[in-house]
Amino acid sequence: MKIKELTQYLEQLAPLSYQENYDNSGLLVGHPDEEINRALISLDCTEDVVDEAIQKRCDIIISHHPIVFKGLKKLNGKNYVERVIIKAIQHNIALYAIHTNLDNVFGGVSSKIAEKLALEAHAILQPKSGLIKKLVVYVPRTHVEAVREALFQAGAGSIGHYDECSYNTVGYGTFRALEGADPAIGAVSVQERVEETKIEVVYPAVKERGILLAMYHSHPYEEVAHDIFTLENQLHTVGSGAIGNLKEPMSGREFLAYIKSKLNLNVIRHTRLLDKPISRVAVCGGAGGFLLSDAKRSGADIFITADFKYHEFFDAEDEIVIADIGHFESEQFTQELLLEVIQKKFVNFAVLLTEIETNPIKYYS
């Protein structure tokens, strides 16, 4: 298949617009129309991973972390980033990254950790706002059903576990067509008064283009009167981290042993264990220190993440246990997640997991 068939599917699951502004997810090397036959999945895109892709005849490497974060002014091979890109281009291997956009969706990186720990009723820890919009459109009575159905089919009107949600107000509109107009109702230079329904629907901002096209195509008017509002409501399927409950409470030491076993860990850095059982658990793949306050507010007994600095451990203040399991370790199952979603969609496409250990941090014991 073509690269764009694969990347468009991945971007339906984790839209690029959901990545953080510092990030660089997406197709980094390669053309969307190039043909691919085999993909290699890795957490990081290193020189060894590119060599592995060459040896295994893979056409594309899908990594969690982008090999390019900042702009490159030269490609001389002076560092590993430049060498990776040069070698990938030389061997016609596309590079694709799916980073914080995959972090920021329900079912993404943190959800995979929650799944590994068998957390029940897990949800986004810090949902994002400003990603929901409302469309208000005025429709003549004769076309209300057609326009409303077109909006629903394009993805408008979904709220949580409900769809086809709308609010409808009956009234009338006035207009006068000027010279050059081609009115669907009435005549040029004559004021018209038409019974109309005001349809209001909400939708995720990422679906806006398709929803507006559906509105225009189904609406009879030459000029469609409509309003678009950005809402501050939280979108509970998009955001950072995850929060969930253990089926049965555990003591602090029992739960640390449980984490170590379930997540294949060598070591856990943690704050003082509290004199109470662990039952509610917050997690975040990667550097999640910015979510500590959210973890506390959510009632979590422990917060599992990575990259806490020394003084940041004091911020637990005996209100919560911080468990720093390491950056690679907290994101290692992202590879498995990507393998699962790609194989489920493209059953005849070859997808391989890297055999390279890309964690740059080693432990001496």
TrEMBL record:
Gene3D superfamilies: 3.30.70.120, NIF3 (NGG1p interacting factor 3)-like. The keyword Thylakoid does not apply. Transmembrane segments: none annotated. Keywords: Metal-binding. InterPro entries: DUF34/NIF3, DUF34/NIF3_bac, DUF34/NIF3_sf, N-reg_PII/ATP_PRibTrfase_C. Belongs to the GTP cyclohydrolase I type 2/NIF3 family. PANTHER family: GTP CYCLOHYDROLASE 1 TYPE 2 HOMOLOG (PTHR13799:SF14), NGG1 INTERACTING FACTOR 3 (PTHR13799). This is GTP cyclohydrolase 1 type 2 homolog.
